[in-house]
């Protein structure tokens, strides 16, 4: 199997449109982690993503009759741009079906390269189904985003370049995983020529379809898929990629949203490139692997797989980067409600910078504060919490509390004793023009809304926090109703951040 794939990779036709991208040393990060860290710069491709390689190679193998019928694909963005550019170069008619949630920068890029773009559905599965219907109806030739030998071979040229560019010892290559085309191509090439090099997949914690498949010994479909890193938001690993990965991928590391945001910042500081979340995914996994295994003195390579992100997402990414790097703590602290207590709190904090402070009078005895504090190093959070506790200031660490980071930090101090029977829910819904109104229409008017917080992060999904006054006898009914309208949601009524600052 490996020999066949290596031959395909060596013969892959990618350089008519793609280019050999540099392997850049991350000097700041290398020094900080005490390892040699190298970044493969696929963000420098003409479509700002590695996807051009597989798309062009697959299309280059088509017969004249298949080309004449025109090509179609379904994609959330990067593969779409690869197909559009390849089609333009070859003079082929291209149709791209994208979910309605696709970032505008990716839609505009596909259109600019001459492709016809159809927005269909709120998720990739719906777009893919519509594309297949168009194949049956109009006879288009379908170009799959990852589950095809020629696509895998095109992506495998990334590994061919890495081994040529860095002939010295390499300990591990970290690869972002969505549908699996890239890691399958890299694993096939590397394990045939340099089997001592570890090939390590990196997945978003809430979209870890390869890890789930490896654990189960077969491909599985995830019940839910997180969409922060939309470029790898895939519910099931591809069949052909899994056939390769199950034998030749050494392990899989999963990372959180905060860890991805920290990696976006790291890439920028070393290269001045702005990665999309899925582009920085492999670096986030590399950093976690180093930390968990106390790795030092090794040569580690990661792949910046893409840089197609909306500019307005950067505020949210910057917000979360310090938390991902463990350089900020978000705490709920109870301090005495009397003059001078805040000054005493600041003395305990010492020379650490206070990044955020939310407070509103609650009662005459205790004050509940929501505070962000910059940390000196990875161990400083525990030391700070211990110092506060020893001084008699009860403290709850909210640094890993998703609701607190998305919503409470913007709402702290909004307590209201007159609200009865309140239940709190956090929602995600597909983000597009009119989406918020559509969400409210779906929510209905059966229960009074007592709290509402929404922020547009420039992402594919909107995030809303809602309080509803639900009498005890209606609690089962409201759960059934929310399940029926189909939006992803969490009941946050028992969340300590809510109980401290809003209830």
TrEMBL record:
Domain spans labelled ACT-like: 329-400, 423-494
Domain of life: Bacteria
Pathway: Amino-acid biosynthesis; L-isoleucine biosynthesis; 2-oxobutanoate from L-threonine: step 1/1
CDD domains: ACT_ThrD-I_1, ACT_ThrD-I_2, Thr-dehyd
Enzyme class: lyase
Family annotation (Pfam families): PALP, Thr_dehydrat_C
Essential cofactor(s): pyridoxal 5'-phosphate
EC numbers: 4.3.1.19
Keywords: Amino-acid biosynthesis, Branched-chain amino acid biosynthesis, Isoleucine biosynthesis, Lyase, Pyridoxal phosphate, Repeat
A GO term, aspect molecular function: pyridoxal phosphate binding
SUPFAM superfamilies: ACT-like, Tryptophan synthase beta subunit-like PLP-dependent enzymes
InterPro entries, sorted: ACT-like_dom_sf, Ser/Thr_Dehydratase, Ser/Thr_deHydtase_PyrdxlP-BS, TD_ACT-like, TD_ACT-like_sf, Thr_deHydtase_biosynth, TrpB-like_PALP, TrpB-like_PALP_sf
Catalytic activity field: L-threonine = 2-oxobutanoate + NH4(+)
Biological processes, Gene Ontology terms: isoleucine biosynthetic process; L-serine catabolic process; L-threonine catabolic process
PANTHER family: THREONINE DEHYDRATASE, MITOCHONDRIAL, THREONINE DEHYDRATASE, MITOCHONDRIAL-RELATED
Function: Catalyzes the anaerobic formation of alpha-ketobutyrate and ammonia from threonine in a two-step reaction. The first step involved a dehydration of threonine and a production of enamine intermediates (aminocrotonate), which tautomerizes to its imine form (iminobutyrate). Both intermediates are unstable and short-lived. The second step is the nonenzymatic hydrolysis of the enamine/imine intermediates to form 2-ketobutyrate and free ammonia. In the low water environment of the cell, the second step is accelerated by RidA.
Subunit organization: Homotetramer.
Family: Belongs to the serine/threonine dehydratase family.
Protein name: L-threonine dehydratase
Upper classification of the organism: Bacteria, Pseudomonadati, Pseudomonadota, Gammaproteobacteria, Oceanospirillales
